[in-house]
Amino acid sequence: MLLSLILFVSGAFGLYDGHILSGIVLIGVGFIYLPPGDVDEDGVMSVRNKMWRWIIIIGVVLLIAAIYFRPETFHTPLNVPVSVTVRNSYVGIGNVVQIRNTSKDTLTGVVVKGDNPRSGETAKHSIGMIAPGNTVDVGWTEWNWKVSPGETITISSNGYLSIVFSSEQLGIR
User: Fold this and answer.
1) Please, which residues have CB within 8 angstroms of residue 173's CB and are 6 or more apart in sequence?
2) Which residues pair with 125 in a beta bridge?
């Protein structure tokens, strides 16, 4: 039972730190080592096993909450292979998002999306293609978005999972 708990906790921390595959493997192995429930002659599960079942359920709920509220922490090799930085705009309005293709392949169908959860506002800009090693600047003139504190920037591309950055991760305070 203790081994299962250690594997579950390690897997949850792995997922929280963005190590998706290792986190899933650790949690899966934890389920393998989870002993079957002890039942008495009436078929009632023991109090100890009920407690462990509740700990597992609460752990899964907390993991789902972490994924929902901190999507920017979950990066996998399946995410869009880009690096994102922000610089001040030359025209004086807001900031410019700089998206660099870090892969050896051309990215197609690239879209950048800004979200402000407080106001509910969003903005999207279709970039199209980014050649390997190239950087594309997306600023106020392209998508009428300033990039302010508390916002998220999502980059998507054909064949990859979207990647989400908080404005704070990008140095906007």
Assistant:
1) 149
2) 112
Q: Could you give the CA distance from residue 76 to residue 65 in angstroms, rounded to a whole number?
A: 19
Contact between residue 10 and residue 28 where contact means Cβ atoms under 8 Å apart: no
Q: Average pLDDT, stretch 138-148?
A: 88
pLDDT value at residue 161: 86
User: And the tokens for 130?
Assistant: 């980014």
Token output for 45:
């599960």
Structure confidence at residue 48 as a pLDDT band (50, 70, 90): low
User: For 55-151, where are the E strands, in sequence order?
Assistant: 82-88, 95-101, 107-116, 121-130, 135-138
Model-level pTM? 0.57
Q: Please give the helix or strand (H or E) that residue 154 lies within, else none.
A: strand 152-156
